[in-house]
Amino acid sequence: MADEPDNTELAIGCVSFLASPLLIWWDGWVLVHLWRWFLVPLGIVNISTAHACGIGLLISYMTQKCLPHRKQSELLAWNITTPAVVLLIGYVIQRWFL
Fold this sequence. Notes:
The chain is an all-alpha fold. The protein has helices spanning 7-38, 49-63, 72-96. Helix content is 73%, strand content 0%.
């Protein structure tokens, strides 16, 4: 049947669900570093990883739209690689342009 997910997608969906706390922490960790690089020098108080996780979840809740036609493997890869790319770009800006 075309509408039923295959076992691979189901397994990746389960892994994604179980990895959610780690992915939330990863997003928070990246946000803490970006915050320290770009906002603390402007006089804004430093935040903890827990606060960054909360801010990240709040922003995601308010801005993300449902992506119904994405495969679980694509979403998992997106959630892992996007923070790494953002951190790299932020590091380059902080290191060489500020």
